[in-house]
C-alpha cells in the first residue's frame, strides 16, 4: 500500500468519525466509529475493503425507517446459555430471507435463480467474508455438502430430509468460486423456504476453520491431540461440537451474522461484538449494524418482567407474556421504555386436539365422527373466552391462518365456530349420545359417562385457565371436561403412545403463510401433532411405526400436500393450501378458539426503527428477525450509558 | 479414639458408595435421557429439531451404553475407552448441557454459594443468639413478646414472596439491580471496589430472605434450651454464690444450650452448598441450587450426580466433625467405648 493511499485512508477514517459521507471514487461506505481505531492501527482493513463488492443495500427508506447513528449496546435477557440462539434468530442473516411482506429475497446470496423449483443456481457476493476475515466462497458449500452432509461419520443418516425430492438427492455443481447449482429431477419447493427459516438448514460451513478438525484434511496426530484435549470421543464428535452456526456456543466459529459471540459459557453475561465484515449497508453507506454490541444477561425467566420494569433491558420479547403487561406498563414512565403490543401469529392461542388415533376403541369411533367434533366446537363461547383471558383483543374462530396472510378466507375462521349450544345438543343427541346420567352428563355407547380427559402441559397456565372456562360451556351440552396438567415431555410420550383422548395446546405455528411455504403442518406429517400422532409417526418413520391413515378426508390432506410438493406452479400451490385450510375448517380436526393474543415487546425509549405494530411469530418472521434488528439504533447514546 | 475415627471413615466410604448408586439410579429414573429431553424442548419451542442426529449424538455422549457401564465409568471403577477416569480419579465428568467439564460449571457457582450461605449462617447467629438470650432472660416482658411474635412471622412468611417484594423496593429506593449477584455491568469486569460494593449490596436480599426463617427457628430453639437451663440448680447456685448475672449466664447455661447447635454442624455444612435453592431460583443467583435443578430437569446426569455426591460427602464429613466436636466440648459424651 503506498504512502499516499494510506494517508488518504486515514483521512477517510477521520471523516468517518464525523459521520460525513466520504468523497472518493466508487461507492461511499462509512466506517463504524467503534472499528475506526483498529482500522487506523492497521489491524483491520477499511470498510470499503471489508464489504463485498456489492453489499446488500437495505431498503430502509421504503420501509419508512430512519437513517441511524452508530453506537451503544443492546441489553437483552435470556433464561439460560442455550437461549443465546435467539440472538442468531433475531439477527436473521440467511442465504435468503423473508421481508416484512413475506417475500423471499436474497440476503447473503447476491441472487438466486429458480428454474421450476428443480434447478437452483446461487450467486454469492464477490468479496464476501466470514467474521474472521476469511473469504466466503462456494468452497464453504462444497465442504458442507461433501465433507459434512455426505460424510458417514458426521452425518450417519445422510443429508437432511429437505435435500430429498422424489426420493433422490440433488446434483450439486460448483460452477466457480461464486456460483453453485443444486438440481433435482422433480421439484423441491421446500428447499428455498427452508433456507429462510428461523432455524434454517445451514448448507454452508466455514471450511477454512473446520478443516483443522476433519479427518480428511487434518494431520492425524494433531487431530488426535485435539480430540484428547477437548475430551471428545472421536474426531466426529469434536467436529460436530465445534460446528455451530446457530447456538452461539463456540466463540471461535466464524459467522456471517451482524454480531458474533465473544463470551464462553458458562457465564452470567454474554457479549456479542459487531461483525466487521457484515454484508449489509444502509442507503447512505453506513455499514450495518448500527449498534456496536449485544449484551445478554442470564436471569431466571420469572424475573424478566421485573427487570424490564426496572429499565434493565433495551429490547425484549421472549419470556414476556400477556400477564406481564400491567407490570410492564407500570414501569414505562419511570424507566424510559415503551411496551409494544404485537399480535402473535398463531392459528389459535388455545386449541383442542381430539386424538383421532387414540387407543380406546369407543373414544376413537366417537372422536372420528365429524358431527361430534363440530358439536364440541359449537359448544364453546369464544367471545367469553376472549373477554376473560385476552382482554377482548383476540380474534375468535377456528385454528386457521391470520387475516394478514394472503391465504386467509373469512369462512375458514368462522365455519362451525359460532356459539350455538342448542344445535350442539341436538347434534349430540343425533349421534346416539342422548342418554344422560343423574348429573346430566351424557353417556358413551358403552355406558361410561362422557368425560373427556383433556391433557395439557402443566406450565401452560393460560391454557389451564381457558380449559376451566371451557368446562363450564361443555357442561351445558352434557359433556364433562376433566383437566389433567402434566409435564410436557410426559404428555408428548403419552400422545405418541395413543393414550391421550384430547390435548389442549396452541394452534398453527405458522399462521402467516404464503403459498410458497410448506403446508406440512396441516398434513399428516408430524407425530407431535396431537390430533393424529400415529399417522404422523407412520409418515415420519416411512411406515415402520404408527398407523396408516384410514380416513378419506385425512388422506385428502396428504394428496394435497403431495400436490403442493410436486407442482412448481404458484396458483396450484395456493390451491393446495386453500383446500387444506378448508378441510381443516370443515372437519374441526383441531378445535380453535381465539387467535391473536398479545406479545409484549419492551423497547427502550431511545431505541429507534422498531415498528410500533407488527406481527410476532417464530415462523416466518423469526421473532424480530424480519424487522431487521441490525437497523435498530440508539438516538441518544449518552442517555443510555448514563442509565447503566 | 483413633480406632473410632478409622471405623467411622470406613463406614463413610461405604455410605458414599451406596449413596452414589442411589443418586445415579434416581437421576436415571425419569423416562428418556438428556437428548430426548433436549429434542422435546426444542420441538415445543418451535424448533423442528431433527431426530436423525440424535442417535449419533447418543453414541457420542455414551448414552447408548447400559446404565451399569455409565455408572461404573462415572465413579471410576470401570475403564472408559481412554482408561480409568472417574470420581475416584478426580475426574468429575462432562456436563452435557454446557459441554464443558463439570468442574468448570460448578467452580464459579460454588464460590458464590459459599459466600451467600456463609454470610447467611453468620447473619443467623449474630441476630438470633442475642435475641434468644434477651427473650429467655426477660420472660413475659413486652419486648420478649414482640420478638416472639416477629419470630413467628419470620417462620411463616414464604421466602420467595419476601424476596420478590424486597427486590422490588430495593430497586425502587436504592437502585439496586434486580436479581443476580452483582449489577450486570460488572459481570465481565475484573474485581474492583465498585464491583465488590455491588456484590455486597446484592447480598442483602438473599441473606435477609434466606436468614429470616432460620433466624426465627434458631431464636425459638435457643430460647427453649436456655429456659431449661436457667432454672436448673447449678445456675441458681452460681447466682447464689454471687457470680455476676452475665457471667453466670454465659459461663454455664449458655454453653450447655449451645450443645444442639454443635450437633447441627453436620447439617450446616451441606446446607452451605445446597441451601437456598428456592430463593436462588427466584433471585436468579448464580449458585449451585439453580444449576442442580436445571441439571435434574434435563437429565444432565454427571453434573447433577456430582453436585448431589458433593452434598452427600459434606453431610457425612459434617456429621463426623459434629461428633468429634461434641466429644471435645461436652465431657458427658464418650466415643467408641462400649462399656
From TrEMBL, chain A:
**Among its keywords, does the record have Signal?**
yes
Domain of life, per lineage: Bacteria
Q: What InterPro entries does this protein's entry cite?
A: SBP_5 (IPR039424), SBP_5_dom (IPR000914)
Q: Where in the cell does this protein reside?
A: Periplasm
Keyword check for Signal: yes
PANTHER family the UniProt entry points to: OLIGOPEPTIDE ABC TRANSPORTER, PERIPLASMIC OLIGOPEPTIDE-BINDING PROTEIN, PERIPLASMIC BINDING COMPONENT OF ABC TRANSPORTER
Question: How is this protein named in the record?
Answer: Peptide/nickel transport system substrate-binding protein
Organism in which the protein naturally occurs: Labrys wisconsinensis
TrEMBL record, chain B:
Question: PROSITE patterns in the record, alphabetically?
Answer: ABC_TM1 (PS50928)
Q: Which residues cross the membrane?
A: 9-27, 105-134, 146-170, 199-219, 277-296, 302-329
Domain of life according to the entry: Bacteria
Pfam families given for it? BPD_transp_1, BPD_transp_1_N
Q: Where is the ABC transmembrane type-1 domain?
A: 110-321
Q: Does the keyword Membrane apply?
A: yes
Q: Tell me how this protein sits in the membrane.
A: Multi-pass membrane protein
Q: Where in the cell is it found?
A: Cell membrane
Identify the keywords attached in UniProt to this record, alphabetized.
Cell membrane, Membrane, Transmembrane, Transmembrane helix, Transport
Q: Which InterPro entries match?
A: BPD_transp_1_N, MetI-like, MetI-like_sf
State the family named in the UniProt similarity comment for this chain: Belongs to the binding-protein-dependent transport system permease family.
What is the protein name given in its UniProt record?
Peptide/nickel transport system permease protein
Amino acid at each position: 500500500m503506498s504512502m499516499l493511499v494510506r494517508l488518504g485512508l486515514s483521512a477517510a477514517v477521520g471523516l468517518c468519525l464525523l459521520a460525513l459521507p466520504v468523497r472518493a471514487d466508487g461507492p461511499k461506505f462509512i466506517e463504524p466509529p467503534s472499528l475506526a481505531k483498529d482500522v487506523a492501527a492497521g489491524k483491520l482493513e477499511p470498510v470499503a475493503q471489508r464489504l463485498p463488492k456489492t453489499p446488500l443495500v437495505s431498503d430502509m427508506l421504503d420501509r419508512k425507517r430512519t437513517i441511524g447513528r452508530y453506537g451503544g449496546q443492546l441489553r437483552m435477557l435470556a433464561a439460560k446459555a442455550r437461549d443465546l440462539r435467539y440472538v442468531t434468530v433475531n439477527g436473521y442473516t440467511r442465504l435468503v430471507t423473508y421481508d416484512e411482506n413475506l417475500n423471499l429475497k436474497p440476503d447473503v446470496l447476491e441472487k438466486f435463480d429458480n428454474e421450476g423449483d428443480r434447478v437452483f443456481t446461487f450467486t454469492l457476493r464477490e468479496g464476501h467474508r466470514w467474521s474472521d476475515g476469511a473469504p466466503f466462497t462456494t468452497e464453504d458449500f462444497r465442504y458442507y455438502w461433501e465433507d459434512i452432509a455426505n460424510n458417514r461419520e458426521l452425518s450417519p443418516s445422510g443429508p437432511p430430509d429437505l435435500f430429498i425430492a422424489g426420493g433422490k438427492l440433488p446434483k450439486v455443481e460448483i460452477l466457480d468460486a461464486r456460483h453453485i447449482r443444486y438440481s433435482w429431477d422433480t421439484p423441491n419447493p421446500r428447499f428455498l423456504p427452508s433456507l429462510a427459516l428461523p432455524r434454517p438448514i445451514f448448507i454452508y460451513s466455514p471450511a477454512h476453520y473446520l478443516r483443522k478438525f476433519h479427518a480428511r484434511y487434518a494431520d492425524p496426530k494433531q487431530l488426535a491431540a485435539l480430540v484428547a484435549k477437548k475430551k471428545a470421543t472421536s474426531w466426529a464428535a469434536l467436529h460436530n461440537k465445534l460446528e455451530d452456526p446457530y447456538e452461539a456456543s463456540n466463540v471461535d466459529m466464524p459467522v456471517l451474522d451482524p454480531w458474533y459471540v465473544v463470551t464462553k459459557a458458562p457465564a452470567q453475561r454474554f457479549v456479542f461484538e459487531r461483525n466487521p465484515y457484515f454484508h449489509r449497508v444502509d442507503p447512505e453507506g453506513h455499514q450495518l449494524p448500527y449498534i456496536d454490541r449485544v449484551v445478554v444477561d442470564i436471569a431466571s425467566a420469572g424475573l424478566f418482567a421485573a427487570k424490564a420494569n426496572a429499565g434493565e433491558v433495551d429490547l425484549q420479547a421472549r419470556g414476556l407474556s400477556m400477564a406481564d403487561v400491567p407490570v410492564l406498563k407500570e414501569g414505562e414512565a419511570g424507566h424510559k421504555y415503551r411496551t409494544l403490543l404485537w399480535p402473535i401469529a398463531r392459528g389459535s392461542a388455545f386449541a383442542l386436539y381430539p386424538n383421532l388415533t387414540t387407543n380406546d376403541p369407543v373414544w376413537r369411533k366417537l372422536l372420528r365422527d365429524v358431527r361430534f367434533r363440530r358439536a364440541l366446537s359449537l359448544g364453546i363461547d369464544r367471545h367469553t373466552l376472549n373477554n376473560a383471558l385476552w382482554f377482548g383483543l383476540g380474534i375468535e374462530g377456528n385454528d386457521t391462518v391470520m387475516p394478514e396472510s394472503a391465504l386467509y378466507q373469512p369462512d375458514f375462521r368462522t365455519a362451525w365456530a359460532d356459539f350455538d349450544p342448542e344445535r350442539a345438543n341436538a347434534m349430540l343427541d343425533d349421534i346416539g349420545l342422548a342418554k344422560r346420567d343423574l348429573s346430566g352428563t351424557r353417556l358413551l355407547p358403552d355406558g361410561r359417562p362422557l368425560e373427556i380427559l383433556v391433557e395439557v402441559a402443566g406450565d401452560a397456565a393460560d391454557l389451564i385457565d381457558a380449559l376451566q372456562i371451557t368446562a363450564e360451556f361443555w357442561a351445558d351440552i352434557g359433556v364433562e371436561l376433566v383437566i389433567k396438567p402434566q409435564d410436557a415431555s410426559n404428555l408428548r410420550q403419552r400422545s405418541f403412545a395413543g393414550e391421550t383422548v384430547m390435548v389442549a395446546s396452541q394452534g398453527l405455528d405458522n399462521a402467516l403463510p404464503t403459498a410458497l411455504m410448506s403446508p406440512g403442518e396441516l398434513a399428516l406429517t408430524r407425530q407431535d401433532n396431537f390430533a393424529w400422532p400415529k399417522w404422523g409417526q407412520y409418515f415420519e418413520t416411512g411406515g415402520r411405526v404408527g398407523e396408516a391413515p384410514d380416513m378419506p378426508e385425512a388422506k385428502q390432506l396428504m394428496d394435497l400436500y403431495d400436490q403442493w410438493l410436486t407442482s412448481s406452479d404458484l396458483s396450484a400451490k395456493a390451491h393446495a393450501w386453500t383446500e387444506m385450510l378448508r378441510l381443516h375448517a370443515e372437519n374441526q380436526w383441531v378445535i380453535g378458539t381465539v387467535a391473536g393474543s398479545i406479545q409484549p415487546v419492551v423497547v427502550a425509549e431511545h431505541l429507534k426503527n422498531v415498528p410500533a405494530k407488527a406481527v410476532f411469530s417464530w415462523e416466518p418472521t423469526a421473532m424480530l428477525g424480519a424487522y431487521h434488528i441490525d437497523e435498530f439504533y440508539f438516538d441518544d447514546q449518552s442517555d443510555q450509558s448514563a442509565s447503566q | 479414639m483413633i480406632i473410632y475415627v478409622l471405623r467411622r471413615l470406613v463406614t463413610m466410604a461405604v455410605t458414599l458408595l451406596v449413596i452414589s448408586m442411589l443418586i445415579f439410579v434416581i437421576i436415571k429414573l425419569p423416562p428418556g435421557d438428556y437428548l430426548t429431553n433436549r429434542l422435546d424442548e426444542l420441538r415445543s419451542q418451535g424448533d423442528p429439531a431433527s431426530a436423525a442426529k440424535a442417535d449419533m449424538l447418543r453414541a457420542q455422549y455414551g448414552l447408548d451404553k447400559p446404565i451399569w457401564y455409565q455408572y461404573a465409568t462415572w465413579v471410576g471403577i470401570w475403564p472408559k475407552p481412554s482408561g480409568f477416569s472417574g470420581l475416584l480419579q478426580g475426574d468429575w465428568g462432562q456436563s452435557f448441557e454446557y459441554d464443558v467439564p463439570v468442574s468448570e460449571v460448578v467452580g464459579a457457582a460454588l464460590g458464590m454459594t459459599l459466600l451467600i450461605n456463609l454470610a447467611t449462617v453468620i447473619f443467623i447467629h449474630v441476630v438470633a443468639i442475642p435475641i434468644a438470650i434477651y427473650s429467655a432472660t426477660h420472660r413475659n416482658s413486652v419486648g420478649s413478646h414482640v420478638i416472639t411474635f416477629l419470630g413467628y412471622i419470620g417462620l411463616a412468611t414464604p421466602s420467595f414472596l419476601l424476596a420478590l417484594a424486597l427486590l422490588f423496593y430495593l430497586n425502587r429506593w436504592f437502585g439496586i439491580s434486580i436479581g443476580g449477584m452483582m449489577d450486570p455491568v460488572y459481570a465481565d469486569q475484573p474485581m474492583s471496589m465498585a464491583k465488590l460494593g455491588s456484590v455486597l449490596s446484592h447480598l442483602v436480599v438473599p441473606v435477609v430472605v434466606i436468614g429470616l426463617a432460620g433466624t426465627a427457628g434458631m431464636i425459638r430453639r435457643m430460647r427453649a434450651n436456655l429456659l431449661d437451663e436457667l432454672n436448673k440448680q447449678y445456675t441458681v447456685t452460681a447466682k447464689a454464690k454471687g457470680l455476676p448475672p452475665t457471667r453466670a449466664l454465659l459461663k454455664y447455661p449458655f454453653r450447655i444450650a449451645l450443645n444442639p447447635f454443635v450437633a447441627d454442624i453436620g447439617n450446616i455444612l451441606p446446607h452451605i452448598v445446597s441451601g437456598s435453592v428456592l430463593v436462588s431460583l427466584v433471585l436468579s443467583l448464580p449458585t449451585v441450587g439453580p444449576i442442580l435443578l436445571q441439571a435434574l430437569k434435563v437429565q444432565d446426569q454427571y453434573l447433577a450426580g456430582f453436585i448431589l455426591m458433593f452434598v452427600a460427602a459434606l453431610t457425612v464429613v459434617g456429621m463426623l466433625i459434629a461428633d468429634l466436636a461434641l466429644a471435645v466440648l461436652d465431657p458427658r459424651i464418650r466415643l467408641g467405648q462400649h462399656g
